[in-house]
Amino acid sequence: MLDMSLVIACDRKRAYVAEIVIRLWVEASVSIWFRTLTVSRAKGNIVDRKLSEIRPFVGNSPVLPGAFVLACFLSGCGALTAMTKPSTLMAPKDEAPLTVVVQRAEAANSTATQVDRLLTATPADNDSVWPKQTQLSDDTIASVEKQMADHPYYDGTAFRISPAIVWADELAVIHSDAGASPSLLAALSTEIGDGYKKLQGRVSDLAALQGRLKTEEAARDQDNISAADRKAHQATIDALSPQIETAKTALDPAKDAFVTSCRVSAAKVPADVRDRFAIALINLREAVKQADVANGVAVLRYSTLAVEVVRNPLMLKDALVAAAKANASDYIFEKTGNRLKFSGLSPEVKYENGKVELSLNGISPEDLGSLQLSDLLAETTARTERFAGEAVALLSTTSVTDGELSFEGDILDAILEGFHSAGWQSSEPARVAARTPVEIHAGTAGPSKAFSFGK
């Protein structure tokens, strides 16, 4: 698959604005104990940011708020791009807590991953059934929505459940192990398939260079090496850096050329092939659209939460407790099919040095059934620890997601435009509304606009 985290770029003006805004956050934030932070510049952009160690504290010191603000600083301009998209700016004010924000970002990222997999790594041919499975049925959508309406993050709230959650959940279960063509793109056209392989080769070359750079940096930063060895590793790093910049610079024109070739090649796709696979392209485009909205809304709300958390570090503890309760409920639901609300559950959470220590108080034997408390505790701890990491790194993740979704949208738009130029008439994709738990349980329609995520 194409790792879009390697190809994200931003213009000079946005990088400058992002630096000014985020610097104000950093200067107003609490102190963060860290060992190495280097910021260098290349061609007017902020690049090569490196944080060797962040040490969040408990007790009287910040738990994660400092890391939150630093994450804003390190995220670059991808997050600013996501925040300034029309669909994000037009969304009503959203007061969602950190748990919901992280889940929306996760859904957007997962959707991008699944769309990439279905486009580029899922076999397809004339007998493939999976393209039609992307047309989600009303029953399928309703089933996922009802599960989410009962989820601890949403139960009893007025927060809208992002359509991206439904798309991420359902696209993940679509698979195909057999097909004459290695991917949907290749099944559409040999030219499109070959063009993608060529582009993927460029990305792989860049990934190899960046992998070597990380290896050399890790070797250089080892404590017990000689000055000569450290100098040698630095020399290799200095040599690799311009090679990486050259590869990045050449990649954007290659991406643009591939998108253009998709449009031209799609216009020549035989009508029977076009009609067979168009349903998947239409629905994947809808999934990308909804994921893009979820990603932007998550970034917008997170930027506010980062400031609020600095002012009130206890918000982070509340978020970790809420995440722990939800994770425990999720594990039991996955194992038994029963969704427990755990109104009496009082987890004690401690987070330090990237690790979560957790105790679960208030779970009865009836809640567990045949499950072992030790298994529940271990899985809940692991998931809560993962949540903490995702919360700190959210802007970095959403920046990558924004690049992935933008490129996927460009490819899908180009192919569909090529189809239209040949006389094809589009059909409607599956529609998932952003509804509240109350609307879902009542069976009422959601808002007409997909970007409505207000309370």
Which labels suit this protein?
455 residues; mainly alpha; two-stranded antiparallel sheet; 4 strands; disordered N terminus
What does it look like?
- By secondary structure, this protein is mainly alpha-helical.
- It has 2 domains: 1-188 and 270-455, no CATH class; 190-268.
- 62% of the residues lie in helices and 5% in strands.
- The protein has 17 helices and 4 strands.
- The protein has a two-stranded antiparallel sheet with strand order 1-2. Strands 3-4 form a two-stranded antiparallel sheet.
- The radius of gyration is 23 Å and the shape is globular.
- The protein starts with 11 loop residues before the first helix and ends in a 13-residue tail after the last helix.
